[in-house]
Amino acid sequence: MSKKNKEENEVVEEEVFTTEKETTAEETTADIDPIEELKSNLEKEKDRNLRLFAEFENFKKRTSKERIELFSTASEGVMVSLLPVLDDFDRALSEIEKSDVAGHLEGIVLINNKLRENLKAKGLTIIDTNKGDLFNADIHEAITQIPSPSDNLKGKVIDVIEKGYILGEKIIRFPKVVIGQ
Q1: Contact 137, 172 (CB under 8 A)
Q2: Do 172 and 84 share a structural domain?
Q3: Of 98, 153, 160, 175, which cross-links 180 as Cys (Cβ 3.0–4.6 Å)?
Q4: Are residues 120 and 49 in the same domain?
């Protein structure tokens, strides 16, 4: 073979090779319609956008709820530290009522009422628990069980040792009770 024939042969081989590449590329693009491909990509992006939007809305709701809860219980530490003071007021009032010191009773009752009204304005409420109420483990803390004086007091509150309190919607101290067996 002459040099010229070799060069022509190589050029022909290159043309065949590039033509084969072009037909392969045309076949793959011919299989997938560009419009269908764009529609598919658009649907994927719409779905992704919708999911991101829903996730963001859930995030906003969750943070809003957490923020409201934080504001309603922000003073929990102060309230918990004041509960023993309220207990002392209750004990002092019950002792003063037993004695004949009317002037002292009136002053302490005024101070007690003022303190309780201020705490109530800040969201503190008393869990209403009375003797004879049915014991509920979700809202009561049983200190002890004693034999009930009568059959109708079995499983019920016989005595309330300490009152329970709710701050906002959260129980910050459960009422401590004695229940009948």
Answers
A1: no
A2: yes
A3: 153
A4: no
Q: What is the pLDDT of residue 59?
A: 95
Average pLDDT over residues 71-98: 81
**pTM tops 0.85, yes or no:** no
Identify the domain containing residue 133 by its residue range.
73-180
Q: b/e string for 147-178 if b means 16 or more Cβ within 10 A?
A: eeeeeebeebbbebebbbbbbbeeebbbbbbb
Q: Are 83 and 165 in contact (CB under 8 A)?
A: yes
Q: Are residues 83 and 56 in the same domain?
A: no
Neighbours of 89 (CB within 10 A): 17
Instruction: State the pLDDT at residue 9.
Output: 56
